[in-house]
Amino acid sequence: MITEEERRAAADALLKAEIERKPIIQPSKTFPNLELEDAYRIQALWAQARVAKGARIVGHKIGLTSRAMQMASKMTEPDYGCILDDALYNDGAQIRADLFIKPRLEVELAFVMGEDLVGPGTRIYDVMRATEFVVPALEIIDYRTEVPRAITDTIADNAAFGAIVVGGRIIRPMDIDVRWVGATLSKNGIIEESGVSAAIMGHPAAGIAWLVNKLHAVGGGLKKGQIVLAGSFTRPVDIVKGDVIQADYGPVGSIGVSFV
């Protein structure tokens, strides 16, 4: 464990990296005793500072939802971060590439909560019952630290969240089988990745149930109207200025976005 003063120093360093678009040395190297509890506290301090500057927390993201990514990170469960309103874009947006350090894109589904949801003991059917809408989404991930990163570095860095883009059809959760939403991700007209939503822990709502129970342990939960990114079902694709992205979700629509 590290001290609260050291946690604040790490959060301040991540804020500076975000503003200056320059990665910092990994917090796990600066503070060798950094543990998971410290990392989530650093993330919370970073979020508090962003809110103090005018941002608003509008939801949460879940990462490391695939077994392969968990094994690579030496984790046995996902991680999570928060979504801020100034990093929320709509289909067709032109996004400044220089807002990020080294952005990458992932294909996901976003759940919009229709009611509050708290743990403990939350299960998939509780998530589906509490969800008002499911929409296609892209997550832009970004690193504010140098690599390679320990899992504590990723968590402290808001689980690598950069931005979210939503679009496509607005679906009620029981209108389709949300396990079998397929998508292709194209960059500049070439399909780079494809996947199906069942790759997210067997069911996209499984990670959200996990999140609700984790948030309960720290006195939190999900609120009506919040957005939750359920996790990626493709590998991340690098993006740079000039790239045009199209994510095709078949019957549930598509998302197009360009980077300028």
UniProtKB/TrEMBL annotation:
It is an enzyme of class 4 (lyase). Gene3D superfamilies: Fumarylacetoacetase-like, C-terminal domain. Keywords: Lyase. One of its GO terms (cellular component) is cytoplasm. Residues 74-255 form the Fumarylacetoacetase-like C-terminal domain. It comes from the Bacteria. GO terms for molecular function: 2-oxopent-4-enoate hydratase activity. This is 2-oxo-hepta-3-ene-1,7-dioic acid hydratase. Pfam families: FAA_hydrolase. It comes from Rhizobium mesoamericanum STM3625. Its EC number is 4.2.-.-.
